[in-house]
Design goal:
- The protein has 15 helices and no strands.
- The chain has helices spanning 22-53, 58-86, 88-108, 112-138, 142-171, 177-195, 210-221, 224-232, 236-249, 254-276, 284-302, 309-337, 343-370, 373-395, 399-414.
Length: 417
């Protein structure tokens, strides 16, 4: 059977003034380091704060987390296109200001309503931040893009290693959760300031109009090959983030959970040089291996009850390898497929699909955890099964894999990659 692959509409990018991309990559990596440090310092201890300090049920915890993730990624559908119109630099500054406000609100929230308000602010800031950083990295030349994104991912995971212990130290001062969230807000202010060091070249000054945003989204939805790929990889956000929810809910002590998250992050960061060399992140097998590791990690978690620290570390290593392989692979495939002026729109649709899947998954999993150990085991087994299904889809010869691979090669050739 012959598969007809439509070549993506690619407009050749203008030759970059900075072939190495250093003027973009250095500030973006520094931004990611500061922002991730603040984010993970709070998020590593948020579930414990909601569950134990505020006394919320697991289902309510899942609702608060799900609103943040679900709304953030729902907004990416239009915000990705808005980023193309406003420019990534301007969008990034706004995003950091909104996220800083969200962390201040989170630290002072004492009711479910106030927590949901903080979750909304964090969601809006995150929706603006992610396409801004990814768009800036996608704009650099192909030779520098792989290494630049590897440094970006490594910065995120190194901050994940430092963030949870920093959170523990701040919590131990006696000032409580408010000091922790205030520190996170300050780090996001620093990240917003660093966006000002990104070169202005290519920034669009005209305000976004509704019809322009809709045109960007329609262009992506009309690309059936990419849309299939986005649906196929929809579980990746849940796979990357749910371990931070599952470990505290399984009953592991905060110090053990912190060690688990730090080990996961160190493994993910250590994988980045391997992925960047020879642009391995663009190869389909990297995504498949990452998804299989994620499935194995959650199957291990499903058998734990909060006392087995050794198997928990095995799950952390597996999840770290998965994160380290999957994130660059999805980015590189998107950067090769998307026309330069439409990357934000493509990223927005991709992240929207992943976020909606994660939102629904968090709600269902929270309810299952409330049923007891058996429900928790079923929930984590289900997450692993989702990873297996995604891996099977990428290994098949359907349009999402075969056409996506060929189309990516065509796009790369057209751009001289």
């Amino acid at each position: 059977m012959t598969v007809s692959v439509p070549a993506p509409a690619v407009s050749p990018p203008a030759p970059p003034a900075d072939p190495s991309g250093r003027r973009v990559i250095v500030p973006v990596v520094a931004i990611q380091l500061a922002a991730s440090l603040g984010f993970f310092a709070v998020m590593a201890h948020l579930v414990a704060h909601l569950r134990h300090d505020l006394g919320l049920l697991a289902g309510t915890v899942g609702l608060v987390l799900g609103v943040r993730v679900g709304l953030q990624f729902a907004l990416l559908l239009p915000v990705g296109a808005v980023t193309d119109l406003l420019g990534a630099r301007r969008t990034g500054v706004i995003s950091c200001a909104v996220r800083a406000v969200g962390f201040v609100m989170l630290g002072s929230a004492g009711s479910v309503g106030a927590l949901l308000g903080a979750a909304v602010a964090l969601a809006v800031g995150g929706a603006l931040y992610n396409p801004a950083g990814h768009s800036l990295l996608a704009s650099v030349g192909p030779a520098a893009r792989s290494g630049g994104f590897a440094a970006y991912v490594a910065a995120q995971h190194l901050a994940t290693v430092a963030g949870p212990p920093m959170g523990l130290l701040l919590l131990g001062t006696g000032s409580g959760f408010a000091l922790l969230t205030g520190t996170a807000a300050a780090l996001w202010v620093v990240a917003g300031f660093l966006f000002l060091f990104v070169p202005r070249s290519g920034e669009k000054k005209a305000p976004a109009r509704p019809r322009d945003v809709l045109a960007g989204v329609r262009a992506v939805l009309g690309d059936r090959v990419f849309l299939y790929f986005a649906l196929l990889t929809a579980p990746t956000t849940l796979l990357a983030t749910h371990i931070m929810t599952a470990v505290p809910l399984l009953g592991f002590r905060p110090a053990v959970a912190t060690l688990c998250f730090s080990l996961l992050a160190m493994v993910a960061a250590a994988v980045q040089p391997f992925v960047a060399v020879r642009r391995r992140g663009e190869r389909p097998w990297v995504l498949r291996v990452g998804l299989l590791c994620a499935a194995a990690g959650f199957f291990v978690l499903a058998a734990l009850d909060g006392t087995q620290q050794g198997p928990l570390m095995v799950a952390a290593v597996l999840n770290g390898v998965a994160n380290g392989l999957v994130q660059p692979s999805v980015f590189q495939r998107t950067a090769r497929r998307a026309p330069p002026e439409r990357f934000g729109s493509y990223y927005g649709v991709l992240a929207f699909c992943a976020g909606m899947f994660s939102f629904a998954g968090d709600l269902v999993i929270g309810r299952l955890f409330d049923l007891g150990p058996a429900g928790a085991a079923w929930a984590l087994t289900g997450v692993g099964a989702c990873a297996l299904l995604a891996a099977a889809g990428t290994a098949g010869r359907g349009p999402g894999m075969l056409a996506g691979t060929v189309a990516g090669t065509v796009a790369g050739t057209a751009r001289g990659e």
